[in-house]
Specification:
heterodimer, A: 181 residues, Alpha-Beta Plaits, 4-stranded antiparallel beta sheet, 6 helices, 4 strands, disordered N terminus, B: mainly alpha, disordered C terminus
């Protein structure tokens, strides 16, 4: 194999036909020392994320930050408008009327927390992404139907085309294909 | 009984311990009642709080029993036996209701006595077609008939499922649960109005029934988590319970805590915005003295702290930590009921309010009543729980519950 060919390879894609098979295969791949791996399934499989060594996501933190900003912003806006910028006596109530401020504060918390979750997801998944090499594998279309895929990327330090191919085949993959970059 | 999931022998010991602790509670309760100087008042006031709390525990479980049939989720299978055992204690609560309606009514409810104040008397007369001792008793019996009727039918069909593989019994339980939950919810609302809201002759709040209802749900889920932690440490349920199940129960508890805060706050917001003289005093009283601190404790420990803790996925996966939150919420349920009920007794019979709070001895009296009735309740509950296998062995969903891995349930289980 020449250097040129390796450069054109994104990685190797192994195809499995059951969720148990891919979880087992992903675990063994991780245990074998591969780290630049990714898995694809038609629906979320919680153990699969753990199996490929994916433990922590920053999305909850971004959501929390969004929520806190929303709470402070929503409350601050009401406080500023009704107590500082345009003080108005409503039925003799204090200008800072906590019970009345809570619904808007709550809604703003939810709004910015959702923005945080949505945008955080897009950013951290580097979306939108018009081109991704995995779609060069013809059978990958079934990743959203009934097949499960495990991809070992070529930039993994342990990656070696022949060895990795044999290793993946040994895990019970239906097919191992080359992913062109 | 299917021996695969027979209750652990240890459960009999737990039943005895619960009853024993309850007995100590009763002794403390009796002593603190006698030395209080006004034994009849003291007794029925703490009795009412304990009655409302433990009836609420049973009713929360009955509600969840119907919810799990409606939802058809796998967590329902895991807790169905506990829910059925807890619902059965409604027979006990029916027996404990009768003393309130027959003996304690005039001690507890101002509307059952006349008033020297002509304005209050006019109000009592106005409400008397509904709020009168006979109708109070009849309504109470109607509520219990509805709840016990639902319990009896659901338990009967559940037993039929144990005896045969025929799924039609479960189908009937599911069909009943929809309309059953509506009727149950109405009965809980009316009971909340009768037993708690009518303590104040003038006050009313239309969301009050839902505040009571969701509080019962919080109690029930906290109980289920505690029982779950106990059972998961022993054969046979140690083979069944997994951290994912506690995760599910924790999520339900988080939801219940949030809904409680939502309803409780809605009531405050509506009354605060309305600013009407017949609604507002209920809150104004509770913003003074000890009640004020109790109210703040409710905000912080019944909502803010459990809410923040239950957001954590790791905490929900850790059964013991989850149980700590559950116990905190059980205590706060008790505090919430004291906060709702006890201030009413400060100004019974139009008397002047001396101070906004209770003496330490009164708190001991309330707590002892709660433990005393609770011991009897838990004894009854554990006795029922020991009668049957701890999971419905014939249910086709059982494989999903037992599956060690999440993904197996969706595709390979078939």
């Amino acid at each position: 194999m020449t250097k040129q060919e390796e450069k054109g390879t994104y990685g190797l894609m192994a195809e499995f036909d059951s969720p148990s098979a891919i979880v087992a295969a992903a675990r063994r791949t991780y245990e074998a020392g591969y780290r630049r791996i990714n898995a694809y399934s038609p629906y979320p499989i919680e153990e699969l994320a753990e199996a490929i060594g994916f433990h922590h996501s920053l999305v909850p933190l971004v959501t929390l930050i969004g929520g806190v900003l929303g709470a402070l912003g929503g409350f601050g806006l009401q406080y500023w408008t009704s107590a500082i910028a345009y003080p108005l006596n409503v039925g003799g109530r204090p200008l800072l009327s906590l019970p009345a401020f809570i619904p808007v504060t709550f809604e703003c918390t939810i709004l910015l927390a959702s923005f945080g979750a949505f945008l955080g997801n897009l950013l951290m998944n580097r979306l939108p992404q018009p081109y991704h090499p995995v779609f060069n594998v013809p059978s990958f279309a079934r990743a959203s139907q009934d097949r499960y895929f495990l991809c070992v990327k070529s930039d993994d330090p342990k990656f070696n085309d022949a060895e990795t191919r044999a290793f993946l085949a040994g895990l019970g993959a239906k097919e191992v294909s080359n992913v062109e970059s | 009984m299917n021996t695969n999931y027979a209750p652990p022998a240890d459960l009999g010991r737990v039943q005895k311990v619960a009853t024993g602790v309850g007995l100590i509670g009763v002794i403390v309760w009796v002593i603190s009642t006698v030395i209080s100087g006004k034994p009849k008042d003291t007794f029925f006031q703490s009795y009412l709080v304990a009655f409302i709390f433990w009836t609420g525990m049973a009713l929360g479980c009955l509600g969840l029993l119907m919810v799990q049939y409606l939802g058809g989720a796998t967590w329902g299978l895991l807790i169905r036996r506990q829910l059925e055992a807890a619902s059965h204690t409604l027979w006990l609560m029916l027996a404990l209701f009768l003393p309130i309606a027959l003996l304690g009514l005039h001690t507890l409810y101002e509307w059952s006595n006349g008033s020297e104040d002509p304005k209050v008397q006019a109000l009592i007369d106005h409400k008397s077609p509904y709020l009168n001792p006979t109708f109070f008793l009849i309504r109470g019996i109607i509520y219990f008939t509805i709840w016990i009727g639902l319990t009896t039918l659901l338990r009967k069909w559940s037993k039929q499922q144990d005896e045969s593989l025929d799924m039609s019994a479960v189908q009937r339980a599911q069909n009943l649960s929809g309309p059953g939950f509506v009727i149950y919810g109405l009965a809980v609302t009316f009971a909340g109005v009768d037993w708690v809201m009518s303590l104040d002759i003038e006050w009313f709040s239309t969301i009050f029934g839902l505040v009571i209802l969701i509080g019962q749900g919080v109690s029930a889920l906290a109980l289920l988590i505690s029982i779950g932690v106990y059972l998961s440490g022993r054969e046979p349920m140690s083979r069944v319970y997994q951290s994912k199940h506690f995760h599910d129960l924790g999520k339900l508890l988080l939801t219940a805590v949030m809904v409680w805060a939502y309803f409780a706050f809605s009531q405050l917001l509506i009354i605060w915005s309305g600013n009407l003289p017949e609604e507002l005093p209920w809150y104004l009283e509770r913003f003074k003295g000890q009640w004020r601190w109790m109210g703040l404790a409710l905000i912080m420990l019944h909502f803010v702290l459990p809410f923040l803790l239950l957001l954590s996925r790791n905490l929900k996966h850790n059964a013991r930590r989850l149980m700590m939150v559950a116990w905190l919420l059980i205590i706060m349920r008790f505090v919430d009921l004291i906060w709702m009920i006890a201030p009413e007794f400060n100004r019974a019979h139009g008397g002047q309010v001396a101070h906004y709070g209770l003496a330490i001895s009164s708190y001991i009296n309330y707590a002892a009543a709660m433990v005393g009735v609770g011991g009897v309740w838990l004894g009854w509950f554990f006795h029922q729980l020991r009668q049957r296998a701890l999971v419905p062995d014939n249910d086709p969903q059982l494989n999903e519950v037992l599956a060690r891995a999440e993904h197996v349930l969706s595709f390979e289980g078939h």
